[in-house]
Amino acid sequence: MAGNVFGNPVTDELVQELYPGQKVTRKLKAQVAFQYINAGGKDVDAKNFVYGLKEQYGNGISAKCMIYNATGDTLTYSGKKDWHGHIYESPYPAKIQNGQWGAFLHVHPSWFAGSESAIVYRGYNDNDVVCDWMLSWGIPYIGDNHAYTEIREGHHYETDHWDYIKGLLESQSTRHEDTWNGCHSNVTIGEGTSPEFVGIMTLEGVTTKKKSLK
Question: Is residue 10 exposed (0-12), middle (13-18) or buried (19+ Cβ within 10 Å)?
């Protein structure tokens, strides 16, 4: 397991234990992962890790980023766009298994600018179609913070849509969500110069499902 990925993954075996006799689908695995979002203190572990990076980095604008996979399958890092700033010390998690948190710190450049960036993770919807989840944040040197997310077909972000996305990001407030082709994501960012940015990547309907675990 990478040093900046936290929590035991939610596997087929775990879901079978919880739902004996029921067919294990990607959607069901996603639902269990979402219900296990804080299991074993993995959310606290992710937060402690990124706060430790911030302490190491010191003063200056930065985004304390924590992202969670509740898609029912492994998500793979597939790209980024830095408008302002760069990753600090620990890299973007290469893979985040279902039911795991990834954490990293994104910091401003050495000149007078903020942290403004986007990351892309690739996975599948419930019909085995490849999709890309894009999460983005903006902490300007002067002004309010922003968060924006969207989901598109696999490899969509290998074409340069970044100027357009930057405009969408900067028009948003501190909370945004998107649903597309059976996938869902939501992002939030706090106030101030070094806020928490939290992104949850999942499937449509999972975050609103109220069914309790057995």
Answer: buried
